[in-house]
Amino acid sequence: MPVPHSDKTIGALGFALIWIGMAVVLAAFAIGGAGVQHLSLGWVILATIIGSAAIGLFMTIIGDIGIEHGLSFPVYMRAPFGTIGTHIPSVIRGFAASCWFGINTYFGSTAMNGILNILFDFDNWFLCYIIFAAAQLINTALGIKAIERFADLAAPVIIIISAWMYTTLSEKALEEGRHIWSWVENPVTGRAAITAFIVVIMSNMGFWSTLAADMPSISRFIKAPKYEKNWFKRNKASLVGNILALTVTQTFMVIIGAVSYIALKNYDPVVALQEAASGFILGVLLLMIVLAQWSTNTSANVIPAATIFSNVGGPKFPFWAGVFAAGFIGTIVQPWSLFNIIIPALLICGGVLSAIVGILFADYYLLRKRRVNVYDLYKEYGQFRYLNGFNLAGFIAWIVGGTAAYFLTNYSFVVGFLVGAVCYYFLAKYWWFQKYKQAEIEDPNEEKYLGITVGRDWRIEDNDVVPSSVVVVNTSGNANVSLD
């Protein structure tokens, strides 16, 4: 259901702390480790900043759907894909998020196993995996506020321990005779260097492409001022988290991964730490890994996946059931076997999902001008029913954009976004919406179809959505309404 203004509880600082917790993710080490194989650390850092800031901007742009209307990703996807069609790309996104949950939980469980091994000579990482997964899923099932409280606790600890980790690995690299700012394993020049630089940018964008698509599922809980027409002021809190907090934290994680590879020729963080430290210090660093994976998984992976699965399952499949479904899927894919293919997977995943980001951009900004007939989003046979529940313009654009990104892997996100957006715009505007008229396009009235910009909350009455400024006169059948 649309989140009303009174339930938007996360401020700029709270969202930044959530992002710090989300972005401290060990898989990002692989980007740094792979990057310094062909580029110096300085160039890897620059590429990471560019890629992270760019994907953060995309997140904020798409996240306005949640800020403005309080809508989640799978609900808004009914507009470009149809009331039934929305489930196909949504489930793919949910599956990807579940896989990430499994990967991050695996890292956390090996770290937890390391701590228990130091303290009690205990060695059973799979039991740690089950316990760690259950703890995260319960935390997420308790709701968004519980996640923010955990991020408030975890983020400062993670920052302090990350700084210590960087110092330790830097000293280890110097002991091996490798200067972290100049050492490159297999340096390249010319066109090969440009390609390597772009791959680092696209890897960082692909890393968060899943969240770029469904940012509305989180942004709908972010505080924003009513009656604010300035896009930047309305999305101020979102910008702080998506661009500033993400870029700084992601860059730091990539640096640690790069330094780890320079020092130890290994960017698997658990293995690297076990070689670089011991005793109490190793236990503290492994604790950082546990906290990092927990704070990342809850916000970045479990919430989006659970929201999607709950939407697909309908009223009889509540959010908490979606949470545990995500955990089950993330486990049965055996995430302990996925880490070695993470870079190519990031580029492909980024390309496929970037086409969806492009479609959302074209639908929300270019065609609907941010106006949404929210009322019909919750109707089975409203304007978003299209052809038996499917918007063919969305599916064609997704296939074309995803295919183009797949064959141009090094530029996957940019290609997927542009091709998806352009294809959808022309197909929808000149073909599909000529057959299936859209009320907010035919009559782009701000008072009817904007949300927080005109001070409106959308609320549900008998499975129909009506603006908060509307009084329900007859709630039997289709609601009859009259304005205050």
SSE inventory with pairings:
Layout: H1 12-23, H2 28-35, H3 41-69, H4 73-76, H5 78-81, H6 87-120, H7 125-141, H8 144-175, H9 190-207, H10 209-213, H11 216-219, H12 231-234, H13 236-264, H14 269-276, H15 279-313, H16 319-332, H17 342-367, H18 374-377, H19 392-407, H20 412-435, H21 439-442, H22 446-449, E1 458-461, E2 464-467, E3 470-474, E4 480-483
Antiparallel strand pairs: 1-2, 3-4
Helix pairs in contact: 1-8, 1-13, 1-15, 2-9, 2-13, 3-9, 3-13, 3-17, 6-7, 6-15, 6-16, 7-15, 7-16, 8-13, 8-15, 9-17, 13-14, 14-15, 15-16, 17-19, 17-20, 19-20
GO cellular component, one term: plasma membrane
InterPro entries: Pur-cyt_permease (IPR001248), Uracil/uridine/allantoin_perm (IPR045225)
Keywords: Membrane, Transmembrane, Transmembrane helix
Short description:
The protein has a domain at 5-342: Orthogonal Bundle (Hydantoin permease). 69% of the residues lie in helices and 4% in strands.
How would you portray this structure in words?
Its main location: membrane. Pfam families: Transp_cyt_pur (PF02133). GO terms for molecular function: nucleobase transmembrane transporter activity. Belongs to the purine-cytosine permease (2.A.39) family. With 484 residues, the chain is mainly α. The protein has a domain at 5-342: Orthogonal Bundle (Hydantoin permease), CATH 1.10.4160. The chain is built from 22 helices and four strands. The strands form two sheets. The chain has a two-stranded antiparallel sheet. A hairpin with a 5-residue loop joins β3 (470-474) and β4 (480-483). α15 (279-313) crosses α16 (319-332). The longest helix has 35 residues, at 279-313. It starts with 11 loop residues before the first helix and ends with a strand. Mean pLDDT is 85; it is low at 465-484.
